[in-house]
Protein backbone atom coordinates (compact mmCIF):
# COMPACT_ATOMS: atom_id res chain seq x y z
CA UNK A 1 0.00 0.00 0.00
CA UNK A 2 2.78 2.39 0.91
CA UNK A 3 4.40 1.81 -2.41
CA UNK A 4 1.25 2.60 -4.28
CA UNK A 5 0.61 5.95 -2.70
CA UNK A 6 3.70 7.77 -3.97
CA UNK A 7 2.87 6.75 -7.50
CA UNK A 8 -0.55 8.20 -7.04
CA UNK A 9 0.98 11.46 -6.05
CA UNK A 10 3.18 11.63 -9.09
CA UNK A 11 0.80 10.16 -11.52
CA UNK A 12 -2.80 10.48 -10.47
CA UNK A 13 -3.82 8.47 -13.44
CA UNK A 14 -1.89 5.50 -12.17
CA UNK A 15 -1.54 3.53 -15.33
CA UNK A 16 1.16 1.01 -14.99
CA UNK A 17 2.82 -1.61 -16.99
CA UNK A 18 4.59 -4.43 -15.35
CA UNK A 19 7.82 -5.77 -16.63
CA UNK A 20 8.67 -9.32 -16.11
CA UNK A 21 12.33 -10.02 -15.88
CA UNK A 22 13.83 -12.83 -17.91
CA UNK A 23 11.28 -15.56 -18.33
CA UNK A 24 8.39 -13.52 -17.17
CA UNK A 25 7.58 -16.16 -14.65
CA UNK A 26 4.78 -15.20 -12.39
CA UNK A 27 4.98 -16.52 -8.90
CA UNK A 28 1.79 -17.96 -7.56
CA UNK A 29 -0.49 -15.05 -8.17
CA UNK A 30 -3.44 -17.00 -9.41
CA UNK A 31 -3.35 -15.05 -12.61
CA UNK A 32 -5.31 -15.94 -15.68
CA UNK A 33 -3.13 -17.68 -18.21
CA UNK A 34 -3.53 -15.01 -20.84
CA UNK A 35 -2.05 -12.37 -18.61
CA UNK A 36 1.17 -14.27 -18.27
CA UNK A 37 2.16 -14.11 -21.92
CA UNK A 38 5.55 -12.58 -22.26
CA UNK A 39 6.97 -11.66 -25.57
CA UNK A 40 10.67 -11.89 -25.53
CA UNK A 41 12.79 -9.99 -27.91
CA UNK A 42 16.26 -11.13 -28.58
CA UNK A 43 18.65 -8.21 -28.57
CA UNK A 44 20.14 -9.16 -31.89
CA UNK A 45 17.12 -9.54 -34.11
CA UNK A 46 14.65 -6.78 -34.70
CA UNK A 47 12.13 -9.26 -36.02
CA UNK A 48 8.69 -9.49 -34.46
CA UNK A 49 8.71 -10.70 -30.91
CA UNK A 50 8.72 -14.43 -30.84
CA UNK A 51 8.61 -16.37 -27.65
CA UNK A 52 11.98 -18.02 -27.47
CA UNK A 53 13.91 -19.54 -24.68
CA UNK A 54 15.95 -16.95 -22.92
CA UNK A 55 19.55 -16.97 -24.02
CA UNK A 56 22.19 -16.73 -21.39
CA UNK A 57 23.59 -13.27 -20.99
CA UNK A 58 20.80 -11.47 -22.74
CA UNK A 59 18.00 -9.93 -20.80
CA UNK A 60 15.00 -9.51 -23.03
CA UNK A 61 13.29 -6.76 -21.18
CA UNK A 62 9.95 -6.32 -22.78
CA UNK A 63 6.63 -5.67 -21.18
CA UNK A 64 5.04 -8.78 -19.85
CA UNK A 65 2.01 -7.56 -17.97
CA UNK A 66 -0.33 -4.64 -17.97
CA UNK A 67 -1.99 -3.30 -14.86
CA UNK A 68 -4.13 -0.32 -14.07
CA UNK A 69 -4.88 1.10 -10.68
CA UNK A 70 -8.45 1.57 -9.58
CA UNK A 71 -9.20 5.21 -8.91
CA UNK A 72 -11.44 4.31 -5.99
CA UNK A 73 -9.82 1.53 -3.98
CA UNK A 74 -6.29 1.87 -5.44
CA UNK A 75 -6.01 -1.86 -6.06
CA UNK A 76 -4.16 -3.03 -9.13
CA UNK A 77 -6.09 -4.78 -11.84
CA UNK A 78 -4.45 -6.76 -14.57
CA UNK A 79 -5.44 -5.94 -18.11
CA UNK A 80 -5.45 -8.95 -20.34
CA UNK A 81 -3.79 -7.56 -23.42
CA UNK A 82 -1.98 -4.62 -24.90
CA UNK A 83 -4.88 -3.53 -27.05
CA UNK A 84 -7.23 -3.25 -24.10
CA UNK A 85 -4.54 -1.55 -22.07
CA UNK A 86 -3.87 1.02 -24.79
CA UNK A 87 -7.56 1.66 -25.01
CA UNK A 88 -7.83 2.42 -21.29
CA UNK A 89 -4.67 4.49 -21.33
CA UNK A 90 -5.72 6.56 -24.32
CA UNK A 91 -8.72 8.04 -22.52
CA UNK A 92 -7.83 7.60 -18.88
CA UNK A 93 -8.21 11.24 -17.94
CA UNK A 94 -11.73 11.41 -19.33
CA UNK A 95 -12.68 7.93 -18.18
CA UNK A 96 -10.92 7.05 -14.94
CA UNK A 97 -10.43 3.37 -14.39
CA UNK A 98 -12.28 1.52 -11.65
CA UNK A 99 -12.49 -2.15 -10.71
CA UNK A 100 -16.04 -2.38 -12.00
CA UNK A 101 -14.81 -1.86 -15.56
CA UNK A 102 -13.54 -5.42 -15.45
CA UNK A 103 -16.27 -7.99 -15.92
CA UNK A 104 -17.45 -9.51 -12.62
CA UNK A 105 -14.96 -7.53 -10.56
CA UNK A 106 -15.64 -5.01 -7.82
CA UNK A 107 -13.54 -3.03 -5.35
CA UNK A 108 -14.35 -5.70 -2.75
CA UNK A 109 -12.25 -8.25 -4.59
CA UNK A 110 -8.63 -8.71 -3.70
CA UNK A 111 -6.07 -6.97 -5.90
CA UNK A 112 -4.85 -8.87 -8.95
CA UNK A 113 -1.29 -7.91 -8.34
CA UNK A 114 0.77 -5.98 -5.81
CA UNK A 115 3.17 -3.31 -6.78
CA UNK A 116 6.29 -4.70 -5.21
CA UNK A 117 9.87 -5.45 -6.13
CA UNK A 118 9.23 -8.98 -7.38
CA UNK A 119 8.87 -7.36 -10.79
CA UNK A 120 10.17 -4.19 -12.31
CA UNK A 121 7.39 -1.68 -12.72
CA UNK A 122 7.28 1.19 -15.14
CA UNK A 123 4.76 3.98 -14.78
CA UNK A 124 3.07 5.07 -17.91
CA UNK A 125 1.63 8.43 -18.82
CA UNK A 126 -2.11 8.67 -19.43
CA UNK A 127 -3.72 9.69 -22.69
CA UNK A 128 -1.16 8.33 -25.11
CA UNK A 129 -2.92 7.83 -28.44
CA UNK A 130 -3.87 4.30 -29.31
CA UNK A 131 -1.46 2.75 -31.78
CA UNK A 132 -2.88 3.03 -35.31
CA UNK A 133 -3.97 -0.24 -36.91
CA UNK A 134 -1.14 -2.05 -38.63
CA UNK A 135 1.50 -0.37 -36.52
CA UNK A 136 3.10 -1.77 -33.42
CA UNK A 137 4.39 0.28 -30.52
CA UNK A 138 7.50 -1.10 -28.87
CA UNK A 139 9.13 -0.21 -25.60
CA UNK A 140 12.56 -1.50 -24.80
CA UNK A 141 14.14 -1.25 -21.40
CA UNK A 142 17.81 -0.40 -21.43
CA UNK A 143 20.16 -2.99 -20.01
CA UNK A 144 21.03 -0.82 -17.06
CA UNK A 145 17.33 -0.17 -16.40
CA UNK A 146 17.97 3.56 -16.63
CA UNK A 147 15.18 4.22 -19.09
CA UNK A 148 12.96 2.91 -21.82
CA UNK A 149 13.10 3.70 -25.48
CA UNK A 150 10.04 3.83 -27.69
CA UNK A 151 9.70 3.06 -31.36
CA UNK A 152 7.01 1.96 -33.75
CA UNK A 153 7.14 -0.79 -36.31
CA UNK A 154 5.27 0.19 -39.45
CA UNK A 155 3.04 -2.12 -41.51
CA UNK A 156 5.97 -2.59 -43.86
CA UNK A 157 8.27 -3.57 -41.04
CA UNK A 158 10.22 -0.34 -40.83
CA UNK A 159 11.28 1.01 -37.45
CA UNK A 160 10.47 4.65 -36.77
CA UNK A 161 11.96 6.34 -33.74
CA UNK A 162 10.71 9.92 -33.82
CA UNK A 163 7.86 12.11 -35.04
CA UNK A 164 10.10 13.31 -37.86
CA UNK A 165 10.63 9.74 -39.00
CA UNK A 166 6.89 9.08 -38.77
CA UNK A 167 6.13 12.13 -40.90
CA UNK A 168 8.66 11.03 -43.49
CA UNK A 169 7.28 7.51 -43.53
CA UNK A 170 3.69 8.68 -43.97
CA UNK A 171 4.79 10.97 -46.77
CA UNK A 172 6.55 8.13 -48.53
CA UNK A 173 3.56 5.83 -48.05
CA UNK A 174 0.51 7.79 -49.14
CA UNK A 175 -1.50 4.59 -49.37
CA UNK A 176 -1.63 4.53 -45.56
CA UNK A 177 -4.75 6.57 -44.98
CA UNK A 178 -6.36 8.04 -41.90
CA UNK A 179 -3.14 8.02 -39.91
CA UNK A 180 -1.51 11.23 -38.73
CA UNK A 181 1.73 12.07 -36.98
CA UNK A 182 -0.33 13.01 -33.92
CA UNK A 183 -1.41 9.38 -33.58
CA UNK A 184 2.11 8.49 -32.48
CA UNK A 185 3.71 9.19 -29.15
CA UNK A 186 7.27 8.60 -28.11
CA UNK A 187 6.55 9.33 -24.49
CA UNK A 188 8.03 6.54 -22.45
CA UNK A 189 7.03 5.22 -19.04
CA UNK A 190 9.22 5.92 -16.05
CA UNK A 191 11.06 3.07 -14.37
CA UNK A 192 10.11 2.70 -10.72
CA UNK A 193 13.48 2.79 -9.01
CA UNK A 194 12.51 0.67 -6.01
CA UNK A 195 11.68 -2.17 -8.36
CA UNK A 196 14.94 -2.31 -10.28
CA UNK A 197 16.64 -5.64 -9.59
CA UNK A 198 19.29 -5.49 -6.89
CA UNK A 199 22.03 -7.00 -9.05
CA UNK A 200 21.56 -4.25 -11.63
CA UNK A 201 21.89 -1.57 -8.97
CA UNK A 202 24.96 -3.26 -7.51
CA UNK A 203 26.59 -3.52 -10.90
CA UNK A 204 25.94 0.16 -11.51
CA UNK A 205 27.25 1.14 -8.09
CA UNK A 206 30.44 -0.83 -8.51
CA UNK A 207 30.99 0.68 -11.95
CA UNK A 208 30.57 4.08 -10.40
CA UNK A 209 32.94 3.47 -7.52
CA UNK A 210 35.52 2.00 -9.89
CA UNK A 211 35.35 5.14 -11.94
CA UNK A 212 35.56 7.25 -8.81
CA UNK A 213 38.64 5.36 -7.63
CA UNK A 214 40.29 5.89 -10.99
CA UNK A 215 39.35 9.55 -11.05
CA UNK A 216 40.64 10.22 -7.58
CA UNK A 217 43.87 8.36 -8.31
CA UNK A 218 44.47 10.46 -11.39
CA UNK A 219 43.63 13.60 -9.52
CA UNK A 220 45.62 12.79 -6.38
CA UNK A 221 48.90 14.31 -7.44
CA UNK A 222 47.69 17.77 -8.14
CA UNK A 223 44.48 17.96 -6.17
CA UNK A 224 44.72 20.69 -3.59
CA UNK A 225 44.00 19.56 -0.07
CA UNK A 226 40.68 21.05 0.94
CA UNK A 227 41.03 23.37 3.89
CA UNK A 228 38.38 23.64 6.52
ZN1 LIG B 1 -11.54 -0.61 -6.98
From TrEMBL:
Supply the InterPro entries for this chain. DNA-bd_dom_sf, Methyl_CpG_DNA-bd, Znf_CW
Q: Which Pfam families match?
A: MBD, zf-CW
Name of the protein described by the UniProt record:
Methyl-CpG-binding domain-containing protein 4
Disordered as annotated region, ranges: 37-59, 202-228
The MBD domain extends over 121-191
Which compartment or compartments is the protein found in? Nucleus
The record ties this protein, via Gene3D superfamilies, to: 3.30.40.100, Methyl-cpg-binding Protein 2, Chain A
**Low complexity biased stretches:** 42-59
Q: Which CDD domains match?
A: MeCP2_MBD (cd01396)
Q: What is its main location?
A: nucleus
Stretch forming the signal peptide? none
Keyword field:
DNA-binding, Metal-binding, Nucleus, Transcription, Transcription regulation, Zinc, Zinc-finger
Taking every annotated instance into account, which residue ranges of this chain make up the domain CW-type?
A: 60-115
Which GO MF terms are attached to this record?
DNA binding; zinc ion binding
What are the annotated GO cellular component locations?
nucleus
Amino acid sequence: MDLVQPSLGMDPAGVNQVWIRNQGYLPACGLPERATVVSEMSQASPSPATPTSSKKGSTPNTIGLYAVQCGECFKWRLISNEDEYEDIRSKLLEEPFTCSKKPNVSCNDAADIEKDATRTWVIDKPNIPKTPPGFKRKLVLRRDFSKLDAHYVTPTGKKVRSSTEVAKYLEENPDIKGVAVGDFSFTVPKVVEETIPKDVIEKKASARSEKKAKDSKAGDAKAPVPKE
